[in-house]
Amino acid sequence: MKGISLLNSLAIILGVVQTTCALGYNDQQQQILAPAANIKDNRPNIIFILVDDQDLLLDSINYMPNLNKHLAQEGTFYRNHFVTTALCCPSRVSLLTGRLAHNTNVTDVNPPYGGYPKFVERGFNENYLPVWLQNAGYNTLYTGKLFNAHTVDNYNSPFANGFNSSDFLLDPYTYSYLNATFQRDSDPPVSYEGQYTTDILKGKALDLLESAISQTDPFFLTIAPVAPHSNVHSNGPIIPGVDLKITAPISAERHKHLFKDVKIPRTPNFNPDEPSGVNWIARLPKQNESNIDYNDHFYRSRLRALQPVDELISEVVDILDENHILDNTYIIYTSDNGYHIGQHRLQAGKECGFEEDIRVPFIVRGPGVLPNYEELAITTHIDIAPTLFDITGLPLRSDFDGTPIPFKKELNSSDPVRHEHVTVEYWGLAIPEGKYNTLGPDNPEIITNNTYKSIRILSSEYDLYYSVWCSNEHQLYDLKTDPYELNNLYVTSDSPGNLNEGREILGVSLAKVIHRLDALLLVLKSCQGQTCIRPWDVLHPEGKVETIVDALDAKYDEFYNVQSKVSFSRCEFGYILDAEGPQTALTYRDGIEWHHWV
Ligand SMILES: *[C@@H]1O[C@H](CO)[C@@H](O)[C@H](O)[C@H]1NC(C)=O
Ligand SMILES: *[C@@H]1O[C@H](CO)[C@@H](O)[C@H](O)[C@H]1NC(C)=O
Ligand SMILES: *[C@@H]1O[C@H](CO)[C@@H](O)[C@H](O)[C@H]1NC(C)=O
Ligand SMILES: *[C@@H]1O[C@H](CO)[C@@H](O)[C@H](O)[C@H]1NC(C)=O
Ligand SMILES: *[C@@H]1O[C@H](CO)[C@@H](O)[C@H](O)[C@H]1NC(C)=O
Ligand SMILES: *[C@@H]1O[C@H](CO)[C@@H](O)[C@H](O)[C@H]1NC(C)=O
């Protein structure tokens, strides 16, 4: 760069800084940014790799050597990372806004409750992570799947905002491994019939990366392959029942021979002899040998579909290294939701609250991130947007339901300042993928009434899952003794003769624990911002309760006994408030009879 043009670019950068400040960042931010024109350039780059439907618990990451070598060994593996809604579109909208699905009200993959049109209708196209980072001076780039129901018909009405350059996969071809349609910037869609989608995507991602590196602005590049999602063929909208075929993912030719002997891990919850769960899951039949063989094939197909993603990781790292920016670039790897195949007798799919569905890989390398480290503190997808604000120096938004993950230091997993809870919510359908379901091959069955609210809470002392379904069925699993969630401990205080009678968790009866969990869920299912981060403060404004252990104090027994209980009046497909029972909790006030405050 010649002297004069360097000066010009500095002036331009200064100009951008001033504009950025004018957009309302706080004074402190201005003071930091304004004096040194080149500080902007020192902000880290971010590469966000967002795969589709990858599990944490079915071992798929162990078949990705580059992910392990370049990210896990060089970075931190967040072992207790959860999604808050186990379905692509709601999860992605939560991730990109830092808000729980009950606060985005994008709760499904298709309108009226979800999909790209609902995202736009709710105003998020002007108000989500890429827009925020672009306004802050980041060069924002994206390739791959953004949201469901983002289609060849609606991609330009309006275009997705916030990207300096984008190249999106569009429905109904998003999940066609050999017939993808991509749509770049404001160009019309282009079909890639006969080509392998993840390889095309890799080419696009590397081009975007090279172009970002050639610019002076720091960049935020998202690479969102559909692997290892199932292959979906549709001639219309991707809605069950509309000429839709859901099959195992298709492998690239060069990977077809791999993993011939690999099978789904036969964990104790794999196709168990006794049914488990509640509602439709408790009614599933045990799978026969042909079904299991098919599911093993489905599983191997997923591992193969992930291989091009693994290759991509290595190429991205090489390019960063060659350009000497590897040390100033965060690479974040995760999935929009987890996946089950055969656990609890389920056919392939997601949408459940079981561990397989809500835990996903979350692996980060970058400046200051501890290498070869496994973090046990709880982190979730709604923490990701706040975290990116944190590492790029932006003040947090008050509507964030999550809280930054301090990438640069070891977290103390028993530190109550980090939350012990995960809010999990779901509305509407479950769709078993693959050919074995009661409606027969290639005919996706729709399970209705898959609406539930749950919490996971965990620390070194306890590890619990509690949920309430729209049918008012309940689940309680103690994962310390039942890590595969096979033994539902839920009892009501008046269920005599119950097998679980006399059983204790944390030294008290199940009923006492359930009352606390229910109250915590009551707060979390309608929390906003800070109350999602510190829910016990809502129940105990005097601030003496920070964990479930604190709440178990006998002096609160009566308060929790009479607390409103989470319940539903009916099953709905979306977030319909009047179907969802009590919305607010009673509050405890020390030294004063709490019920005087009701
Ligand atoms: C990205 O787009 C924003 C908004 O249009 C613009 O101000 C910025 O200069 C662009 N950055 C690059 C590197 O093109
Ligand atoms: C591939 O996609 C195009 C649209 O982009 C469509 O017209 C064509 O029918 C598809 N081919 C197959 C084999 O499905
Ligand atoms: C296995 O179960 C499926 C239904 O789930 C049925 O269609 C198939 O015939 C069964 N196969 C055998 C060998 O029993
Ligand atoms: C973690 O936090 C707990 C609770 O605050 C504290 O007792 C413990 O000493 C901390 N451990 C470390 C390693 O800082
Ligand atoms: C479950 O869904 C079906 C079909 O939508 C409906 O008829 C039934 O009443 C629902 N069950 C409950 C418990 O709401
Ligand atoms: C969520 O969106 C649906 C569909 O537009 C609407 O019917 C519902 O009232 C909304 N829920 C809330 C709590 O605003």
TrEMBL record:
InterPro entries: Alkaline_phosphatase_core_sf, Arylsulfatase, Sulfatase_CS, Sulfatase_N. The modification 3-oxoalanine (Cys) is found at C88. Keywords: Glycoprotein, Hydrolase, Signal. It catalyses: an aryl sulfate + H2O = a phenol + sulfate + H(+). GO terms for molecular function: arylsulfatase activity; glycosaminoglycan binding; N-acetylglucosamine-6-sulfatase activity. It comes from the Eukaryota. GO terms for biological process: phenol-containing compound metabolic process. Residues 44-393 form the Sulfatase N-terminal domain. The keyword DNA-binding does not apply. Residues 1-22 form the signal peptide. It is an enzyme of class 3 (hydrolase). Pfam families: Sulfatase. Its EC number is 3.1.6.1. The conversion to 3-oxoalanine (also known as C-formylglycine, FGly), of a serine or cysteine residue in prokaryotes and of a cysteine residue in eukaryotes, is critical for catalytic activity. PANTHER family: N-ACETYLGLUCOSAMINE-6-SULFATASE FAMILY MEMBER, SD21168P. Belongs to the sulfatase family. This is Arylsulfatase.
